[in-house]
Design a protein that fits this description.
By secondary structure, the protein is an alpha/beta fold. The strands form 3 sheets. It has a 5-stranded parallel β-sheet with strand order 5-4-6-7-8, sandwiched between helices. A two-stranded antiparallel sheet has the order 1-2.
Length: about 200
Amino acid sequence: HVFEPFFTTKGVGKGTGLGLATVYGIAKQNGGFVDVSSASGEGATFRVYLPLRVGREGDDRGRREAPLAGRGKVLLVEDDAGVRQLTQRMLVQLGFTVRSLGDPAAALASLDTHTAPPDILLTDVVMPGMSGAELCERLRERLPGLPVLFMSGYPAVPTDARGERIEGAGFLQKPFDLTELSRAVRGALGADRLTRSA
């Protein structure tokens, strides 16, 4: 059960059990696998195996799309502190103003304490207490038409309470780099808020 989403040996409120599931998914998507050995009272050892990349360093540099600088206000909601901080730094590097929160309920409450509404919601899909899809619906009750970009380590695109794909929402697969983030934000927010970065 160790790689199953939400399986955890921790107590309630101590973890979601998504870490190993995400690692396993990333390894499999890239043609690799994860090996685990465990013994009672001795802990566990995880080994991640990924295929060797063949080619010279820099072969694809000329073909990679340059990141796009942006402008506007991003409401970032991600319960994993490490992912949240990294994503915030990337967004700031791209030129966005970021309001970063680790709790969906706090994100809703922030609308009452900030006079300027966000231009886009960038949210994780799976979070404790409220999903990204639920947060999107609640925010759109107050901000109709708010652009939304979901991010997740799982390939499934989030759906609403009726099981239908959420209208006007983009999806960003974790892990992502600066160029992939800028491309996804461009798609969700609109190219008029982005300019080519030097």
